[in-house]
Amino acid sequence: MSDNRFTDTRDRYPTRLTEPSDPIPREEPTVWGQESAGPLFETDLQSIEANGYLVQRSAVDDNWLSTLRGELNNIGAKADPEDPRIIREPGGSIRSVFQPHLFSDVIAEVVTLDTVLPVARQLLGSDVYLHQARINLMPGFTGTGFYWHSDFETWHAEDGMPAMRAVSCSISLTDNFPYNGSLMVMPGSHKTFYPCVGATPRNNHTSSLVKQEIGVPSQATLTEAAARYGIDQITGPAGTALWFDSNVMHGSGSNITPFPRSNVFLVFNSVENQLVAPYRAETPRPEYLAARDSQPFNIPSLVQ
């Protein structure tokens, strides 16, 4: 039976404030399931509970990687310039593709792999659905980074996600080196919510997906957090999956090397953590950014 503390819709994590506010201790567990409920071992569960992230090597094998890279090329070639799900860098190159599982049956099938969907269910202790899915492309020389942020801050403020019962899986399609914009995380920061200053502009997503300026901590807050938690850089070969909690502080630098960095990014939310009205925005973000249909994930039958 669910704990009522984690199923109500009170705003326990106020943000987008007019004045700075003290950090808020996390109320929810990080790991909701047991070792017997999925493929992760108890040591894995303890690691993500403590650090807010877990690295799985060889989550996707070489055959899948080759096929997925081909899908990336197909999506890019067929992308409608007017499709709002295609986010471009200021220079015109594709930065992100949202809802890739609706563009590609192959990507939809990856979501259901034994190394993916059962892990999400185990970590969240329930059936899950895709809150958001996207491909992130960071091409050589031109790929720009993502500033430090907690995903939950945005999902709570702009999507109406009540509780920290969501987890992200980033599957690398290219090798992640220390020098090509690989992700950085502050281990343990998921246990603290950092309220941000500044009201949410109307249709904030139209600019924040290219450069996020609202819903990011101040430099003073980040300095304090980095001193407290430190920074881990996530590297590894293609096929590596990084699981990280919705509230862990993370970001990445730009890629000025010749080596691209691409990944499939999947956000799983518990079916017991359904979205409500946004806590700090006038209207919800579009469905391709925040799915409001919380039916457990199934492979879609139609591909565009």
TrEMBL record:
Cofactors demanded by this protein: Fe(2+)
Annotated region (Disordered), positions in chain: 1-32
EC category: oxidoreductase
Pfam families (alphabetical): PhyH (PF05721)
InterPro entries (UniProt xref): EctD, Phytyl_CoA_dOase-like
EC number(s) per entry: 1.14.11.55
Keywords linked to the UniProt accession: Dioxygenase, Iron, Metal-binding, Oxidoreductase
Recorded superkingdom: Bacteria
Catalytic activity: L-ectoine + 2-oxoglutarate + O2 = 5-hydroxyectoine + succinate + CO2
Bias kind Basic and acidic residues: ranges: 1-14
Transmembrane segments: none
Nuclease among keywords: no
Similarity-based family: Belongs to the PhyH family. EctD subfamily.
Subunit structure: Homodimer.
Function as written in the Swiss-Prot or TrEMBL entry: Involved in the biosynthesis of 5-hydroxyectoine, called compatible solute, which helps organisms to survive extreme osmotic stress by acting as a highly soluble organic osmolyte. Catalyzes the 2-oxoglutarate-dependent selective hydroxylation of L-ectoine to yield (4S,5S)-5-hydroxyectoine.
PANTHER family: ECTOINE DIOXYGENASE, PHYTANOYL-COA DIOXYGENASE DOMAIN CONTAINING 1
Protein name per its UniProtKB record: Ectoine hydroxylase
Originating species: Mycolicibacterium novocastrense
